[in-house]
Every structure is written in structure tokens, then in C-alpha cells.
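WARN no homologs supplied; continuing
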Amino acid sequence: MAWRELWPLLAIVAVVWGLSTWARQGLHEGQAQSLRERAKPGDIVMLSSRSCAYCSQAREWFEAERIPYAECFIESNAQCAQRFRETLAQGTPTFLVRGQVIVGLDRARMVALLEQAGAVQR
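OK structure emitted
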């Protein structure tokens, strides 16, 4: 197949990829704003591991977006390790959002839990 025949297909793939990336970025920005508005210190606790790359990515995102959260490391904090075992989670990061367990950085679920808790508190 010649490049001339592939060009339209490659252009479509590039446009779809670009739009998808743009939409995902906008979604994450909206979720970050919602979390900043709703999360109070102590609402979000990240149970993490020092060797976890996903934990590092989550930490960087929370800090860059100025979202209040607490972090504890399961290797060096016995209480944190116990909380992690109690969640029955298979890996880190595991988040406790007002006591509810979320495995992985699920921004939409965090927003939903904080919105539910906010509606109950009114």
C-alpha cells in the first residue's frame, strides 16, 4: 500500500487522538477543580508504597492541582499498613475518601463521593 493511500487514514487517527487527549485533559481539569472546591484536609488519604510509580503520579497530580490530601506509606507506618490490609485492596495507591475505599486514582469516583457527602451534610 502506498503512502498516498494511507495518508487519509493517518490524518483521521491523528485528529481522533488529538481530540481524545484534549477532552481527557479538560475532564481532568474539571475534576481537579471539583476536588479543590469540595475536599477538606483529612477527606482524602492515600495509602501508598514508596516503590509505586502510580503513587508518585497521583502525588504529583494532587500537589500540582493543590488538592488537600494526606499520604501514608504502608512500608514505614504500622497504622497505615493495618488500614491497607483492612481495605483488602490488591495494590497501591489506595484512597480513603471520607472512609470509602477507592483503588487507583479514580478522580470521578472521588468527586462523586465528596458530592454525596456534601449533600448529606447540608
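The first strand starts at residue 44 and ends at 48.
OK
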